[in-house]
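Late entry, written up from scratch paper. The run itself happened at the end of the previous shift, but nothing got recorded in the book at the time, so transcribing now.
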Amino acid sequence: MAVPLLDIGRQHEPVKKELITVFEDALRTSRFIKGPQLEAFESELAEYCGAGAAVGCASGTDALILSLQAVGVNPGDTVLTTPFTFFATAGAVSRCGARPAFVDILPDTFNMDPERLAGYLSSRCALTDRGPVDRVTRSRLAAVIPVHLFGQPADMDAIMETCREWDLPVVEDACQSVGGSWNGRRAGSFGDAAAFSFFPSKNLGALGDGGAVTTPDPEVARTVASLREHGGSGYVHSMVGKNSRLDALQAGFLRVKLRRLDGWHQGRRANAAWYDQRLGSLEEVETPAIDDRARSVYNQYTIRATDRDGLLERLRAADIGCSVYYPVPLHLQECFAPLGYGEGDFPVTEKACREVISIPVFGELTEDELEEVAGTIEAFYGKG
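Output as recorded:
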């Protein structure tokens, strides 16, 4: 039995008529840019996340770039994040003219290790009249980007405490975790800004590209709103921005889906729990570790596996959707070679890159499909 890694069509079928209505309304009104749909979505997303404001933009990557610019990251600055994440996290730093720097991850949740963050700051940085400065590179440390990976928020209590001690802005990379929470607070409600992606494969996916920034700071919201429209209002520009609007049509689609998001999350959690029980007894497999303080939305269900590449080959031969997020850590990417990192610098991340594999978890999976995935994994290891 073929099992897809994700089948967006199954999610869309029950809301197809509503999505078509949004499209027909856009044709009827010709409101394709900004307008009531976008304003309503921004308000609803801010309320959902428990944030003061939300500003729609063209993609999750742009949401990161605009957030960094809005909190004061300038060319020549350094921004700290982790090396185990999608490329856009560090790519956005570079697009701002800043230098990405990395701290390693926790071996269980794959999220930023708060102790390593604190250790980096105490061992390498000094507070000056410019703010925190890296004593090695002489660069101003301008922000920290914790990543809420695979749908599970990072330890935001510890990260925020450290960053406040150092007067460091925090930009949450929440692109995989809309609806996830830490100690009862949703992702996107902790930092000075947070970036969300609505790429179609995300839990809350548009019918094309889309993104948003949430923030508790009205000034950050105003700055992001200006930057997404070339840094101005009308034909008067106070800064250089870019064209990064979220189309009204996509905002309308997202409003339809946001109303059902928590129900879709329940389906993913139920499937994750099924896998936890079924695969939890396999010595060769480590199922996802969810911190007791976190509530994951399982954007991916990512396991560690003995002979990961062999398992990957077996699943693909059986036509079962699977993928490796991520095979090459950011510090070893060719384009970041000038940063001076090498193999062995972040051993926890490098080990994860050799062992992780993500399997289907979307809420519309059937029990037969779950059985097919689990049975194939068991058979690979000579079990079941």
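Residues 261-279 form the longest helix (19 residues).
(Scratch paper discarded after transcription.)
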